[in-house]
Specification:
By secondary structure, the chain is of the alpha+beta class. It has 2 domains: about 70 residues, Glutaredoxin (3-Layer(aba) Sandwich), CATH 3.40.30; about 130 residues, Glutathione S-transferase Yfyf (Class Pi), Chain A, domain 2 (Up-down Bundle), CATH 1.20.1050. Helix 4 packs antiparallel against helix 5. It has a 4-stranded mixed β-sheet, covered by helices on one side. The longest helix has 23 residues. The protein binds glutathione. Glutathione binds next to helix 1 and helix 3. The site of glutathione (GSH) has 13 residues, from helix 1 and helix 3.
Length: about 210
């Protein structure tokens, strides 16, 4: 199995955690030609990472990949429980992918003060914080995000939060986490796989930032 991705990619980290927790052997490869290139789009039509190649089958979108992998390799279930439990896990994963992380991503284009549009940047920084605050209403640490077992919901957030912690100070901001998210973070970072992948993604990002971010 090939996982197209790179170490700094938070969405790739999410899938790496899932594969590692399940003990699945895979090779991580950078997207041929780079992401969003015509060459890579022949493999993954949207040009995004991560994408997973399993034999002749290729699929992208981190939450879709996660569901595919969990269905194909059910031995260590990462969507445990009832249909309702799985729907809640999916809701949290999608909340990350569609509602939270995109605001962090949209700040990347404002790193250079010469081209920064401060009002746009502030809008995304404020929205990112709002969406973290909103999480206090969305789950009850049990101690995991959706109950007493780790699930796909838990894997969506760690690398994104780690990135936000090191990246937002570039804009003079610090992320504030409410009591539920803070308690959940303490639990999830105790998992050695989650910690190892999050730390490696964080280190890759720090190396990238220290090299000038080019
Ligand atoms: N919704 C996608 C987001 C993936 C994503 O945005 N990946 C970034 C790198 S971390 C990317 O490929 N960006 C290239 C692009 O947007 O064209 C997922 O969950 O896989």
């Amino acid at each position: 199995m090939i996982l197209y991705g790179i170490p700094v990619s938070t969405y790739t980290a999410k899938v790496r955690m899932l594969l590692d927790l399940k003990g699945i052997v895979y090779e991580m490869q950078p997207p041929p030609g780079g992401y969003s290139t015509p060459e890579y789009m022949k493999i993954a039509p949207l040009g995004t990472i991560p994408a997973l190649k399993d034999g002749d089958f290729v699929i992208s979108e981190s939450s879709v990949i996660s569901n595919y992998v969990d269905e194909k390799f059910p031995d260590v279930p990462m969507r445990p429980g009832t249909a309702q439990d799985r729907a809640k896990q999916q809701f949290m994963a999608i909340y990350h992918d569609l509602w939270l992380e995109p605001h962090l991503r949209r700040t990347f284009g404002h790193v250079d003060p010469a081209t920064r549009v401060q009002s746009e940047l502030d809008g995304h920084l404020d929205k990112f914080q709002d969406r973290i605050d909103k999480m206090e209403e969305l789950f009850e640490p049990g101690p995991f995000m959706c109950g007493d077992q780790i699930s796909v919901a838990d894997l969506a957030f760690p690398a994104t939060f780690s990135l936000a912690d090191i990246f937002l100070p570039v804009f003079g901001r610090e992320v504030r986490y409410g009591p539920k998210v803070s308690a959940w973070r303490e639990t999830i970072y105790q998992n050695p796989v989650v910690k190892a992948v999050t730390d490696s993604s964080k280190q890759a990002t720090l190396d990238w930032m220290n090299s000038g971010g080019g």
